[in-house]
Structure formats: C-alpha cells, structure tokens
Amino acid sequence: MGSTTTDPGDGAGAFEEECRVAVRAAEDAGALLRSRFLSTFRVDTKGTDGDVVTELDLLAEQLVTRRLAERFPADRIRAEEGGDLAGGSGARRTWLVDPLDGSNNVVIGLPAYVVGIALCVDDEPVLGVVHDPVAGRTWRAVRGSGAHGPAGRLTAPRRPLGAVRPVLGWTQGHGVPAGDPVARALKDGLESGARRVLQLWAPLLTWSLLACGLIDGFVGYRAEEIDLPAGCLLATEAGLEVRTLDGGPFSARIGRPDTARSYVAARPEVLPYLLDLTAGPAGPSGAA
Hints:
This protein folds into 2 domains: 13-153, Fructose-1,6-Bisphosphatase, subunit A, domain 1 (Fructose-1,6-Bisphosphatase, Chain A, domain 1), CATH 3.30.540.10; 167-286, 3-Layer(aba) Sandwich (D-Maltodextrin-Binding Protein, domain 2), CATH 3.40.190.
C-alpha cells in the first residue's frame, strides 16, 4: 500500500499548523523513499561503529528541512545527517528530523523504515510525527492532545499478561561499545522473560508499534536523541508509561547525555514485570 495524505487537524491542539506541515513533509519524504527503495543508491559509512548513511537519507532530509525552514524560519532545525541547519542558538523551538530511521534495513533491502519529525519547545517535546512509507501509515502526537493514527485516536489496550510472555522491543545507541556489560545483561534479561525481543534497527517504528498496542513493551539503553522525543511523546500520549530503568521518572527532554536516555516503556499493567527484568541488570549506572 502506498503513502496517503493524512489530515492532521484532529487532535492537533495548539500546534495545528506545525502538525500539518510536519505530517505532509514526512509523507512526501516517505513517498520519495518508497519510490527509490529498491533502486541503486549511494551508501557511505559514518563513524567507527559500522553505521551507514545513504543517498536516500540525504534526499529525504533535504525535503523535510526545506519545508520546515520555509514555514518556520525562526526555529532551530537539527537533522540526523546535517546537524544544526537553521535558526539561532536562542531559538526556543527546535525541530528534530530523522529522515530515514532504518537506514541499515534499507541497505539490505529490508522494508522496515520510517520518517520521524519532532518539535521541542524549551527542549521539551510537544509534537511528534512518524510516517511508515511501506504500509502508508502516519502516527502523530501533540502534548496534551493525545496520539492519533490512521484509524483515529490511539489508546493503549488493557491486557493482563496472563500465561503468555510479552513481546518486547529493544534498542541501544550507536555510542554503546560492543560487549558493553550493561547492554548484554539487559538483553539477556529481556530474552529470558519475553516471548520475543524485536531489534528492528528503527526505534521510531518500534515506538509506533508500542503506541498501537501491537507489542507490549520497549527498552532502550543510551538511546539516540534524534528520534527519542517523537517516539516517547507518541507512547505517552497513547496512555503508555515511560520510566528509567530503575522505575524513576523519565524525561525525553533534549540536550541530556546519552546516559540519561535509557528507558522502559510499556502498558501500565506490563510495566512492573518489565522493570523486574531490567532493574537488576541495569544497576545504578544504567538508571541515570
């Protein structure tokens, strides 16, 4: 199914114009990605951990950032590949753009990728948009106005765990070294207590599945900042809870170190079980 234009008016609250622009930019970028997905495109490596950036990342990023800069010229724009692209250092509003969350998947021909856009005011997320070009689905959330998807408002289902173990998602930041003992212990703990642990290489897609109730929980260890605000806002506005690894309050506020970006997200009735799986392995160092 191809991408379809979404009407963002429902649930957009005080950020109706920002939501409209972000949704259409994400969907247009998604159409570009989908049209080029199985074609030949340039792939380069970045950093020392084997991560990649493709020609498609750059094209989609240019499309989204140009739209945002044209409509909101005073805002700061921070993009995955280009860094800070617009706006002064004193701007209260910051757009975060992940033009292709799942680049490694695209490189190997795996159709699991999304476009993500967030708006933060005074560093706190107020708007998040995630578009899945493969299925033509768009999810969006505005702080205090709920989360919405193709079928309307998202509400986390209430399902007791019962005898069936949960399906969980896992992600870790690019800065986590191979063999990190906390990451290894966390993953081992999740594997022991879950029916399945998904590692999709596309955190925003995992957040969206959680917000829709299709998976039961999501654990991140030193997660990347660029996609965290949109995903976290989508989940919390859908009625899910997000905590630190030791169960304390969690903030998706930008500008914090990666040691403060470890989280457990789940439906309220699943959260205690998930915290039991993560509190021991994480220890004090993982709970910041």
